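Let us practice reading a record.
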Amino acid sequence: MADYKMEIMPEPEEGQIALLKLEKKVQHSIIKGLVKGRNYMMVKLFSCLFLSLFLWSTCISSNAEVGSKRNQLLLKAIQSKDYDLRCRAIDELSGCIETEPNAQRILVERLFSKKDDLEQVVIIETLSTGDTNTVNLLMKQMKGYSNSPEKFEKGLFVLGRMGKRAETAQKFLLDAFKQFDKDTQTQGAIRTVLANIGYNVKDATMLISKDIANRNELAFGEIQMLSLIKADSWVTENIVNQMVAWLSENPEMPQSDMLAVGLGAIGGKAKNAGSVLTKLARSSCSEQDVQPRSIWLTFALLRVDPNSNPDLTKCALKCLARNSPGYTPIVTKYWVSDILIGTDPNILKKLLPMLQDKDAGVVSGALRMFEALGTKAQPYSQHIFKTLREYPKEEIRSLAAETLSFVAAPDQIAQLEDALKSEKDESVQDELRKSIRIVSLEE
């Protein structure tokens, strides 16, 4: 892989420019007041105001400098050999990827060169927060995969997730639609992405609804993409009704899980899916046979019905904690934490009490879910710190320390160090040391 170097040329931010202009006005007022012999207190007041503004702008400049240094560390860390460190750094870049073209280039290359794994899911999430440059890099790579639907669709996931920020890809996608075999899943996926970035939405919704009603090959690609790109704003009631009808007719078919996730991603507009999702979630959470699909079925239900039975949520979390056969972290990361939970406060608030549940299996599953959420869970990190400090079982405190390596903000490193000083168990101490290293972006 090429050795990319990042050139940092800081420009004054809009807020700083405004402050500098205001400082000049204040200086002018001070001088004017002195010349006219205005009262001493007024001059003193303006002088204090000027000093405050100067210190404020200096603080902003200092913060920008800290941010630039952090970005340099992130760029280095995404090329680390340490898997956990790479994933943490890639996830954190989602907050600033549009300002880091070198990072965009590296991640786009890796998206198409790596095997499907958890890191690739994080790459898709981060690139989907990009800009026009990200779109151009993706199109350049995707041109080489017109005969490889699987690789082409990786780029589609990102473009679809970007929504209208990817509108410059419309012509490229229209041309690609013609290159793939007619009436295939890939064509269905392209049609859905085009709708999500704002192209001919009215016609697209009619065609997608018709495909789902006909249960044809195009519909499989459309439903998959509807789920993976979290399409909701343009999805019509007719599309929702067709999806609910299909899921109700054959809830055990291979596509049923994707239909359920798609309905969950649509959320409140799919309230009429509550009945069938409740039935599926209950059957997958039976005491005799708890199935891995209970995880995404339950959280899909929570999205369409936030008041669903909390016992189902606990069952799903315990299944997640057990790593049951058939469970994969990739599915949980993409389907559940990213698509179904995301930053939905209704679901996240329901998970918080479960970090203190008496059942260690429930707590373990909740921690795994917050770990999968990564830096998106930072507003809730103090709840994880509480579990780290107070939960009686060492294995849970150890898992909380591990979770914080993906969740904690850089300004919480001191808090991690304090936790290390007060922790007595060696296994928890080891996880805390690792968390401090990863949040610090050290090899």
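A brief commentary: Residues 1-64 have pLDDT under 50 and may be disordered.
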